[in-house]
Design goal:
Length: about 90
């Protein structure tokens, strides 16, 4: 299972940069991360409408909180804070 060595939130470029322990550097936009949310609310929305979350283009990631050794919880500027992003899921994005 991939594990991050370092996670950096770049406000200027609105992106999250993850350095993985396999040497890979991944850059994910805040918008893409918000769109990728798989919390119960966003999954229900996707089931109901056939589409995932559609945040404003200027959405920003405000806070990153660790979730054990397993992943991170992301809090976005629209107040959405329910998304848990496990390492394997994050690693497979973008
Ligand atoms: Zn969500």
């Amino acid at each position: 299972m991939p594990h991050p060595l370092r996670i950096t939130n770049h406000a200027a470029t609105a992106s999250l940069v993850i350095d993985w322990d396999d040497g890979r550097r991944q850059q994910l936009s805040h918008l893409a991360l918000r769109r990728a949310c798989r919390c119960a609310d966003c999954l229900a929305l996707a089931q109901r409408t056939g589409q995932g979350p559609a945040p404003a283009a200027d959405i920003r990631l405000d806070t990153i909180a660790p979730v054990g050794q397993y992943g991170i919880q992301l809090v976005f500027s629209d107040g959405h804070d329910r998304g848990i992003y496990p390492w394997p899921f994050l690693s497979g994005l973008g």
